[in-house]
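Saturday, quiet lab. Running sequence design on the structure tokens for the scaffold JK sent over.
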């Protein structure tokens, strides 16, 4: 998987070259997910570059998350985030949870 949240903002801050390197070095057989509240020409170009059959989600007002989706968030001290993430993923595996998407701030 490759997931880009706020994909339009990633382009606004000038990560185009870095994204090209990422796309070139990831396996071709992957699922790519681009999320954005707005559609721009640059984002359309990124969508074309990202992969064959990339999924693009554009948010519309009034759209809600399905009730069966379990969402959680945790506030973690910055210096502890790696160990907390490892622990959460370990607990998920222990409970037979096999997939998750983890959103983090820009590095």
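Result came back. Writing it out in full:
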């Amino acid at each position: 998987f490759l997931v880009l949240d706020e994909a339009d903002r990633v382009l606004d801050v000038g990560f185009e070259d870095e994204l090209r390197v990422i796309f070139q070095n990831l396996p071709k057989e992957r699922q790519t997910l681009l999320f954005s509240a707005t559609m721009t020409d640059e984002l359309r170009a990124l969508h074309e570059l990202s992969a064959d059959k990339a999924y693009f989600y554009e948010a519309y007002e009034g759209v809600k998350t399905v009730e069966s989706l379990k969402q959680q968030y945790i506030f973690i001290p910055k210096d502890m985030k790696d160990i907390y993430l490892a622990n959460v993923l370990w607990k998920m595996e222990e409970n037979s949870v096999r997939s998750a998407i983890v959103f983090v701030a820009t590095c």
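Notes for JK: The chain has one domain: 2-94. Residues 81-94 form the longest helix (14 residues). Ask whether to fix the surface positions before the next round.
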